[in-house]
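Quality-control log, excerpt.
Job 1 of 2 completed; input and output follow.
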Amino acid sequence: MIMKRRHFIKSGFGALLASFFPFRLPAASQNATTVYEITGDPTLAVSELFSAMGGIESLIGNDLSKASVLVKPNLCLPHKDSNGTITSIAVLRALCEYLINEGVGRIIIADHTLQTTDKFETNEIVTYARGNPKISLMLADEQRYYAPRQVEGKVLKTAETLKILDKVNYFINLATAKHHSATHVSLCIKNLMGIIWDRKVFHTDIDLDQAIADLAIAVRPHLNIVDASRVLLNRGPVGPGPIEKPGKIYAGTDILAVDAVVTSCYNFGGKSLSAKEVAHLWASFKNGVGEIDLDTIEVVKRTV
């Protein structure tokens, strides 16, 4: 299969993190329906992904030394990597090291932790980030990290989202693949809940699935990656539960297409469901977030 290169508008750069300029996250391209499924060592898989997409410079721009990249993993729980409930350190490290080696000026790892940050002191992602001078870590458990954002949603009209979203050149959404008791799956779209301050309102005041779909209108990551190096098949989101180890990553610019493909590949919750049967994914499709029909999504498979 010949891989199609996706070319994106190159954004201008300001100085490094200390002198960010406002940056509006663009809507995903209507033609960006290719999903990459890459099997193998995370370091090789990440390199293959960017090569298949035309290279990092075609995505971010030529002056990588002035670029700032936000990497948003699933780091909501202070769990061990082996639990499969958070993004794996191997995939996150591979991504960050690739960006560093390519000359990206600044990398920010950020997520809204569900428990107090002192409980994350020994977490592998936290210790890795704190030990690397090229990486800034933001465990955003205080409201000062957030600012109001208007949302043109059906049930969600406003949300406090991470301020850092408007101060970076490129946003990589790095989810883990796991079952979720409330939403069936927790993949890239569900991972966006880690960029908002008040999650309670999603669960208690408005329809959760529609609210997640509405959030996906307002915040559009440039690149979406699902860490499927290991997959929590059941008893998510906190586990423990049965884990499969396919050793894969899935990625693309269409957040819904990525989630649709991953949903079809594994029996989350002991059920074989299509994305159209998962409420927040179907609501996202109705919101115009991306593509959900597997017949219209090109899946490019590589083994490294």
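Job 2 of 2 completed; input and output follow.
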Amino acid sequence: MSVTVETLEKLERKITLSLPVQSIQSEVDSRLKKLARTVKMDGFRPGKVPMNVVAQRYGYSVHYEVLNDKVGEAFSRAANEAKLRVAGQPRITEKDGAPEGEMTFDAVFEVYPEVKIGDLGGAEIEKVNAAVDEAAINKTLEILRKQRRTFALRSLDSAAQDGDRVSVDFEGKIDGEPFEGGKAEGHQFQLGEGQMLKEFEEAVRGMKVGESKTFPLAFPADYHGQEVAGKTADFLVTLKKLEAAHLPEVNEALAKSLGIADGTVQGLLEDIRKNLEREVKSRLIGRNKKAAMDLLVAHAELDLPKSVVQAELDRMTEGARADLKQRGIKDADKAPIPEEIFRPQAEQRVRLGLVVAELVRANSLNASPEQIKAHIEDMAASYEKPAEVVRWYYSDNRRMAEVEAVVIENNVTEFVFGKAKMTEKTISFEDLMGQS
């Protein structure tokens, strides 16, 4: 076998492969003989089918298989000899005009790029910190109480106020004409919680049971109902039922209903704190990790292999189809999903993956067994039976690979923060959690 390697453009390469026809035919004959020993055909006993009949029936397919195998093996050997890191699958085409007794093929493919990471020493990066305060604990406690609130009918002369649960009949018209979704009977919602548009809640606030009111409502231009977006409707609303909310007291009964082991208020507050601290830790890791990865990519130079980007595009498109199917969309498998909408994200993922891989290789940032074990134990600590969770992770190679990837990302994050000019910033719990 003779091999030549040609550089086309950027990451694209071409290898020319020459294979002796005799070696291909010998392998075809060998496989046909083997096949003849087991093949079943009408009119012949098993193992007694004449070779010419076997060759006539299966010759083409066997020849095709052998050719694929031989070319694949030749390509692998050539790529290894040339020390090429092949990205994706090669496109192989047969060439005309090969010397007698030979078959010649062109294999066009891409190689992984050389990744150059600039000096991070002069780069600036911000590391955020946050803590769980009493206000966060109290706010979470109120949410838990609201989730367990009960409702009781209010007196007929009571006026609707924020916190009440109301049941209303309503009908809206635009230019005197009803519209889809503009009418309902016995519609129920909590007043003051933003479940309805602001003008609707303002109209209901202060109403009494049996009272009716008309009012204009301007739908926002970005309203999800496109047929009414940006238009003004006239609504007639009637209050049918009014219920006051009653929040459970913060006592041992509430603690027990929330599964607190010792059934005390102090135990409940401590449980809330631990859960919030766990969430804060996760959010901080995610936010700081993103900052490190963004900085790393910004200081890296590389060409992107088109084949790897295409594979990522295919994966994302299939994911979108699976999501549509899960939502019950008809013919989701045939839905037109232009892959270009995913291209920026796909390119960013590929770029980040290649840069991280190079940094890990160059600086020995692979995950150690001790790091993986510590990470799993940390995740398992929040469960009732940590040992079972640890066994669950160690029993599946895929789950272990996911943990290893996370640990490597953490190693990369620490490396970047250790190299760059880091400033620390403390933000509020609300800012970290994306709350107002």
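Post-run check on job 2. The chain has three domains: 3-111, 150-246, 255-433.
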